[in-house]
């Protein structure tokens, strides 16, 4: 299986007087988990939305093995993404939602039961989504992203709302996913939590890349990710 690298180059987005994303350049490699990390409002979601073609950049490019998301022949079979938990209609069930998205993406209906099992949502797959907790919605969103057996996962704050067991489960799941030569890009504002989950780190602050490199470079220097971030940005505290 060929690996897919993500390359973001000079990506920029300006909202009025706010440079939400300012000349952002980084890569995420196959076989590795890349953490896209920074405080609230740093520009993580806007960057991921540009990568997925949901927001139009003012400058720069974001590509999967050289192709923009919109130019991928069968996008949902290549890239699985979770950037919005509100995608499922509250009156539908997880199973109904997954059946619809399997049909829309041209994926076999048999994938529905498979992703329900993979993401551990069997216990509530036939309940209405409107009653789900944030953690349950996270799992459903991940299940939806996995329908096309993608080779890349792009997840915005995937551990939001997950309980400790869910966080450990997600960590192991992503580890196995990457170990098969696939690419994982996850954003988070919780630096301490992802310290155990990522191979490579891209730190973003005020729309600009503050540091990027393997996690081992951070830990070799003896510090934690949070300490490194604070020493780079010289800020008092993470918001
Ligand atoms: N549609 C928009 N209109 C105006 N400003 C926006 C818009 N989207 C994002 N911004 C601004 O761009 C900046 C970056 O926001 P973004 O959501 O990308 O940050 P983030 O790192 O994902 O934060 P969080 O961790 O809180 O999700 C913020 O100042 C935000 O207010």
TrEMBL record:
Gene3D superfamilies: P-loop containing nucleotide triphosphate hydrolases. Coiled coil: none annotated. SUPFAM superfamilies: P-loop containing nucleoside triphosphate hydrolases (SSF52540). Belongs to the ABC transporter superfamily. Residues 6-231 form the ABC transporter domain. The lineage of its organism: Bacteria, Bacillati, Actinomycetota, Actinomycetes, Propionibacteriales. Pfam families: ABC_tran. This is ABC-2 type transport system ATP-binding protein. It comes from Microlunatus parietis. The keyword ATP-binding applies. It comes from the Bacteria. PROSITE patterns: ABC_TRANSPORTER_2. GO terms for molecular function: ATP binding; ATP hydrolysis activity. SMART domains: AAA. Keywords: ATP-binding, Nucleotide-binding, Transport.
């Amino acid at each position: 299986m060929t690996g897919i690298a993500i390359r973001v180059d000079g990506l920029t987005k300006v909202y009025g007087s706010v440079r939400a994303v300012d000349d952002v350049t980084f890569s995420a490699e196959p076989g590795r988990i890349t953490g896209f990390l920074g405080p609230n409002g740093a520009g993580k979601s806007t960057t991921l939305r540009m990568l997925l073609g949901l927001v139009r950049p003012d400058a720069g490019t974001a590509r999967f093995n050289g192709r923009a998301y919109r130019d991928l022949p069968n996008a949902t079979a290549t890239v699985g993404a979770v950037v919005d938990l509100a995608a499922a209609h509250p009156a539908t069930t997880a199973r109904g939602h997954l059946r619809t998205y399997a049909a829309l993406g041209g994926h076999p209906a048999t994938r529905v039961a498979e992703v329900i099992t993979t993401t551990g949502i069997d216990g509530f797959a036939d309940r209405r989504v409107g009653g789900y907790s944030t953690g349950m919605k996270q799992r459903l969103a991940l299940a939806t992203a996995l329908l096309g057996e993608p080779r890349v996962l792009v997840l915005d704050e995937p551990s939001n709302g997950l309980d400790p067991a869910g966080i450990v489960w997600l960590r192991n799941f992503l580890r196995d996913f990457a170990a098969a030569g696939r690419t994982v890009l996850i954003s988070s504002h919780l630096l301490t939590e992802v310290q155990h989950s990522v191979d490579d780190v891209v730190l973003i602050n005020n729309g600009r890349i503050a540091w990027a490199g393997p996690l081992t470079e951070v830990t070799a220097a003896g510090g934690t990710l949070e300490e490194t971030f604070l020493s780079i940005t010289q800020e008092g505290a993470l918001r």
